[in-house]
TrEMBL record:
<dbReference type="InterPro" id="IPR006901">
    <property type="entry name" value="TrmK"/>
</dbReference>
<dbReference type="Pfam" id="PF04816">
    <property type="entry name" value="TrmK"/>
</dbReference>
<dbReference type="InterPro" id="IPR029063">
    <property type="entry name" value="SAM-dependent_MTases_sf"/>
</dbReference>
<dbReference type="GO" id="GO:0160105">
    <property type="term" value="F:tRNA (adenine(22)-N1)-methyltransferase activity"/>
</dbReference>
<protein>
    <submittedName>
        <fullName>tRNA (Adenine(22)-N(1))-methyltransferase</fullName>
        <ecNumber>2.1.1.217</ecNumber>
    </submittedName>
</protein>
<keyword id="KW-0489">Methyltransferase</keyword>
<dbReference type="GO" id="GO:0032259">
    <property type="term" value="P:methylation"/>
</dbReference>
<keyword id="KW-0808">Transferase</keyword>
Length: 219
């Protein structure tokens, strides 16, 4: 069994489906672990670089998985997979992959951007994918892990009753759960921006939103 770090273990716990595609599979460990745990029946690994492609082939030899050399969703047919993961990349790269072939995005999507998860929360809202869960895994830095499910209803209930801008920036589920580590990070960010004599409009707005969401708790 390949070793999964806490980040990929948290991704694996969000997945259960028949056919799963992992884009940017690299070492191939996520698919191997999902298959071994019986969380998926078949895996498709997609890589666009030669060495990671070979690494995935090596890891996944002899299990129910196929490794394809392709650029993102170019390597998957419409309706071929029930779920998708894209982990360990920048949010913009993940967004580009999702937007290149929107009709090929399966109904269950787990994304782990290295930073800027707001870009992907906004993708979910624009494209009818509800944000059903979100976790932060504390490793080298806090890794966001977002689970989306395709929905008919355009309104995502995760955002109901919350300020839209703050929820997009920091995550509706994380704000609702209000866990100590998360609150500590918000306070730290508020201190950081407060130290600046002058802020551009975006960061000034961010600081104002931080004041608002932190104003309900002891500081
Ligand atoms: C930093 S690694 C992350 C590996 C693994 N997903 C993880 O989280 O541990 C990113 C991998 O994505 C692959 N990659 C980046 N863009 C890709 C694309 N458009 N299509 C397929 N693979 C891609 C890279 O070659 C690299 O192996």
């Amino acid at each position: 069994m390949p070793h999964l770090d806490d980040r990929l273990k948290a991704v694996a716990r969000q997945l259960r489906s028949e056919v799963h595609v992992d884009i940017g599979s690299d070492h191939g460990h996520l698919l191997k672990a999902l298959l071994a745990a019986g969380r998926i029946r078949r895996g498709i690994a997609i890589e666009n670089k030669r060495q990671p492609f070979e690494n995935s082939r090596h890891t996944l030899a002899g299990v129910n998985a196929e490794v394809r050399f392709a650029d993102g969703l170019e390597g998957v047919q419409h309706g071929e997979a029930n779920s998708l993961s894209i982990c360990g990349m920048g949010a913009e790269s993940i967004l580009n992959i999702l937007q290149a072939f929107p009709s090929r995005v399966p109904p269950l999507v787990v994304l782990q951007p290295n930073r800027c998860p707001e870009v992907l929360r906004a993708w979910g809202l624009r494209n009818g994918f509800h944000l059903c869960d979100e976790q932060l895994v504390y490793g080298h830095w806090p890794y966001p892990i977002l689970r989306f499910e395709q929905a008919q209803d355009a309104r995502d209930p995760a955002y109901e009753g919350l300020g839209r801008e703050a929820a997009l920036l920091w995550g509706p589920h994380l704000i609702r759960r209000w866990e100590p580590e998360f609150v500590a990070r918000l306070r730290e960010e508020k201190r950081y921006w407060s130290d600046f004599k002058r802020l551009g409009p975006d960061n000034a707005q961010r600081l104002q939103l931080l004041h608002q969401i932190l104003s309900g708790v002891q500081q």
